[in-house]
Automatic annotation (TrEMBL):
InterPro entries: 6-hairpin_glycosidase_sf (IPR008928), 6hp_glycosidase-like_sf (IPR012341), GH116_catalytic (IPR006775), GH116_N (IPR024462), Non-lysos_glucosylceramidase (IPR052566)
Lineage, opening ranks: Bacteria, Pseudomonadati, Bacteroidota, Sphingobacteriia, Sphingobacteriales
Gene Ontology terms describing biological process: carbohydrate metabolic process
Domain spans labelled Glycosyl-hydrolase family 116 catalytic region: 501-777
Organism of derivation: Sphingobacterium siyangense
The protein's name in its UniProt record: Beta-glucocerebrosidase 2-like protein
Domain Glycosyl-hydrolase family 116 N-terminal: 73-392
């Protein structure tokens, strides 16, 4: 793909130049073919540092007083409905809803190239190479539509107006609790504080109600004083249909009132649109409403919502020309009693159902528009649906937000491990009218829901499992499936080749998605095709030693030769998952075949690919190191297969002591609290971590070998010198699962710190373009921290917390329900576990508790209750370090129910 041309243009520099500049060091530090490994083994971290990682802390809050608001862009639209950001001061920006993003045309959220000094020279960085990491988009520069709120009241007899914008208040505080945010505005000399809460309906397991092209804004006015206050609130929104068009002389913007669910709604559209323009990406409709019976609408403002002379002194852009705009508004007047509060809610919807024309050329599914376009006819119907279902949509959204934050785990950790699910609420993903889910790698860059990128993500499979199952059936085993060979084309319609890591990842995700199902129907109906996909992996082992060795595309965009630890291990994990699925469908012959393959492959991987410290890449016997590879270097994904085993609660494919050794090697050789010295001496990588920032480098040469990466150091070598957050999250999740909690938290924390709002948008982890899909691997670290296991068809759920197990509380999701798990184990031999369901239902046959060797197997010392009703056990046993409680009758938990398990 074209993304890789960055390296071709910006990586190598002539050795002659290096020698002339650094004649003494040219053969050591700065030589491209042999830069000295310079990551310190000692990380310089104190006990106090590690202790701080475990502290609960406070909810993540960014402040005006700390200059932390300008980069913030939290997605506040529904899933797959484009990108609408809310900024740090509460104004909406970006509005990437007009179907403009497409590979090679308009990539990322801000399609600009920037210059970056890589330590040796200035190189050009494009959006797909990390330009937004170097120079993050600033909200005020991309505020493409007029929208906002103004608060007007008398202060000491004078008419004072404050808009909800940064420069109008002494302090603005943005509290990030995705999928919601809470913004507080305060000034010493103003009688009111204002709180704004924004979100689009977001309900785990309910992808339909979480996919509305709509955002809601809820304003609370708080009277600080001892006397009543008369206040006027005005909210305004511009008609964005055919936004900025200068080529249609006859187009007439239209704003009119309609009533929906006893509420007045401003509808925005265009009349007299030429036929050819009806296919344009910005052709559609918008709607705006204030959910207040006393709200007074204005269909088109002729001047600013408040008198210009009253606001000009402190409004930056008070010279806005309204002649070319159509801005509608709602005004509400209130009297707020002393020390009282008052609430007003608004909603904005949009409807632009024309996917990019090039998308339609490639994808048959795109030709009929989007899922929301099939469900609704215009933005008015979206608003109408919201108004008629508002109580359910808002209560369930807030129930999830409260459930997610009702935890003993640190707030910063909960924020960073969950926030990347917001990728689904950006222009990076689409859901077509046919129901098909589809995504870029990053916004507008690298098409086809790429198997070897998307397979790293863990959040969608746990939060919206139906979307993952759709991807398995419609794309991976549908349009991307080769029935004759079992190969899965890694970009479906956009490619003709499979990728070996992507193929294995599909199989592993299939097992996870089966576990996140309520029954076995998903697995059974897809088993024939899935079995062929598994056989394809088996067939790539040319010498039949259990270690795949057929040269094939992988996520580092090169065809590597030989036996590569991370690919071998990933394939072994996939085959083991296939064995477990074969057992469930009753295919004993194939199960036996898979298990034998895993047995042989695991033995050979441990004996032949482990160098005594970490896993390596054994060269092809004939080719040697002729081609690019990782060889005897320390590669970030070397035990990725084992990491997947931990995510889906199946036995590992490698020796435990080897795995821990490999993870310790990654910490020792690849992790640094300052990547600056490394990227200055190892040229060619893209800027996803900068000098002064911590990170884990993709691939290092700790032995300082000559030609460590092979004879043909092609442009892909640049990847080795980068810090890509999706890979880092994968390692953090695995470290957590293997008990390396300090290291896992540290790695997660440095990623979190790299995305602090003082530096860049905390809601946008960047790799190849913005909101990169691989970063959704972050949720895996949360799964590991809980020691969570679940198998819906078997009715099994389990927990083995890795931190704070004496007093632990965290959310969980299952096939049809979600809620909170809590345990208290402050005294040896005494334990209380509580499952509280907050949504849906949960069917259980077994409960598993890990790290419980001190708990008795005597049923008489155990009390199990559903609410107040006793639950009888048929068996209580200890297996592989966990306690398993088998219920005599299936337990059915419904919303509000509690299951309590207590050892006395």
């Amino acid at each position: 793909m074209d993304r890789r041309s960055f390296f071709k243009k910006a990586s190598l520099v002539g050795l002659g130049v290096l020698v002339s500049k650094f004649p003494v060091w040219s053969n050591t530090v700065f030589a491209w073919d042999k830069p000295v490994h310079n990551i310190p083994e000692e990380k310089g971290l104190s006990g106090q540092w590690f202790d701080s990682l475990y502290e609960k802390g406070k909810k993540i809050t960014y402040r005006k007083s700390k200059n932390e608001l300008r980069y913030i862009g939290m997605p506040v639209g529904g899933l797959h409905s484009g990108t609408v950001y809310i900024g740090g001061d509460g104004r909406l920006w970006l509005w990437q809803i007009f179907n403009t993003a497409y590979d090679g045309e308009r990539e990322g959220i801000e399609p600009k190239n920037v210059q970056w000094n890589n330590g040796k020279e200035l190189v050009t960085v494009r959006p797909r190479d990390g330009s937004a990491y170097i120079e993050p988009a600033i909200a005020d520069n991309l505020r493409s539509m007029e929208q906002g709120f103004a608060i007007s009241t008398l202060v000491d007899g004078k008419h004072v107006i404050k808009e909800l914008r940064e420069n109008h208040w002494d302090e603005v505080a943005f509290e990030a609790t995705y999928p919601t945010c809470r913004i507080t505005y305060s000034s010493i000399d103003f009688p009111l504080d204002v709180v704004l809460v924004a979100y689009s309906p977001f309900i785990p397991l309910d992808q339909d109600n979480s996919s509305l092209p709509l955002t809601t804004i809820h304003i609370e006015l708080q009277n600080k004083g001892g006397a009543p206050v008369d206040v006027t609130v005005t909210g305004w929104m511009e008609n964005g249909v055919h936004k900025g068009r200068k080529d249609f002389d006859t187009v007439h913007k239209r704003s009119f009132l309609a009533e929906h669910a006893n509420t007045q709604v401003l509808l925005f559209s265009c009349d007299q649109v030429p036929t050819q323009a009806m296919e344009a990406g910005d052709h559609g409709s918008m709607a705006f409403t204030c959910i207040d019976l006393e709200a007074q609408p204005t269909t088109r403002l002729e001047e600013w919502p408040v008198k210009p002379q009253e606001v000009k002194a402190d409004r930056v852009d008070s010279t806005v020309d309204f002649s070319d705009l159509q801005v509608g508004a709602f005004t509400v007047k209130r009297t707020i009693k002393a020390k009282a509060t008052s609430q007003i809610s608004y909603a904005i919807s949009w409807y632009f159902n024309n996917p990019h024309p090039k998308l339609k050329l490639h994808l048959k599914d795109a030709q009929s528009g989007y899922w929301y376009g099939a469900r609704f006819s215009n933005a008015a119907e979206v608003i109408n649906y919201y108004l008629n279902n508002r109580e359910k949509l808002e209560s369930e959204t807030m129930a999830w937000q409260q459930t997610w934050n009702d935890t003993t785990l640190p707030y910063w950790f909960m924020d960073r491990t969950f926030v990347n699910i917001g990728t689904l609420a950006t222009a990076n993903t689409m859901r077509f009218a046919s129901g098909r889910f589809w995504g870029w790698e990053g916004v507008g860059a690298c098409a086809g829901t790429c198997t070897h990128v998307w397979q790293y993500g863990q959040s969608m499979g746990r939060i919206f499992p139906d979307l993952e199952r759709n991807l398995r059936e419609v794309t991976d085993l549908g349009v991307g499936f080769q029935s004759d060979t079992g190969a899965i084309i890694f970009r479906a319609e956009y490619e003709k080749r499979p990728a070996i890591d992507g193929q294995a990842g599909v199989i592993l995700r299939f097992y996870r998605d089966h576990q996140m199902s309520s029954d076995s129907e998903f697995l059974k109906r897809n088993w024939p095709k899935l079995k062929k996909a598994v056989q394809f992996v088996l067939d790539q082992d040319k010498n039949k030693d259990g270690m795949t060795d057929t040269p094939m595309e992988n996520t580092l965009d090169a065809v590597w030769e030989g036996e590569i630890a991370w690919i071998v291990g990933l394939c072994l994990a996939a085959i083991q998952a296939a064995a477990l699925m074969a057992k469930e469908v009753g295919d004993k012959t194939f199960q036996k075949l898979c298990l034998e393959y895993v047995r042989k492959g695991s033995e050979n991987m441990d004996s032949k690919l482990f160098n005594g410290e970490y896993y390596i890449h054994r060269p092809d016997m004939l080719q040697g190191r002729k081609m690019l590879g990782s060889y005897n270097t320390c590669h970030i994904d070397q035990v990725y297969g084992q990491a997947w085993c931990r995510q889906v609660d199946m036995p590992g494919v490698n020796r435990q002591e080897n795995v821990v050794s490999a993870l310790k090697a990654l910490w020792k050789y690849n992790f640094t609290m300052d990547v600056g010295p490394y990227i200055k001496t190892h040229l060619g990588g893209r800027p996803y971590a900068l000098a002064g920032e911590g990170g884990m480098v993709m691939n290092t040469n700790p032995k300082n070998e000559d030609k460590a990466y092979g004879d043909n150091t092609t442009w892909q070598l640049g990847y080795f010198h980068e810090c890509m957050s999706g890979f880092e999250h994968q390692v953090a999740a695995h470290m957590m699962a293997e008990g390396m909690v300090d290291e896992s938290l540290t790695l997660t924390r440095v990623i979190h710190d790299r995305h602090h709002a003082a530096k860049r948008n905390p809601f946008n982890e960047i790799e190849c373009s913005d909101h990169y899909a691989r970063a959704m691997a972050s949720y895996g670290t949360f799964i590991s921290a809980c020691g969570f296991s679940y198998h819906g068809p078997k009715g099994q759920i389990g927990f083995a917390p890795k931190l704070g197990k004496a007093d632990f509380k965290a959310p969980f999701t299952t096939a049809k329900g979600w809620g909170t798990y809590a345990q208290k184990r402050k005294t040896k031999g005494v334990c209380q576990c509580t499952l509280t369901l907050k949504y849906g239902q949960l069917m259980l046959n077994e409960f598993h508790l890990g790290d419980a060797d001190d708990l008795s197997l005597n049923k008489k010392q155990l009390i199990v209750k559903q609410n107040e009703r006793s639950i009888e056990l048929v068996e209580l046993k200890r297996t592989d370090g966990r306690l398993i409680l088998s219920f005599k009758k299936q337990v059915m938990l419904k919303n509000g129910d509690t299951l309590t398990i207590q050892w006395l």
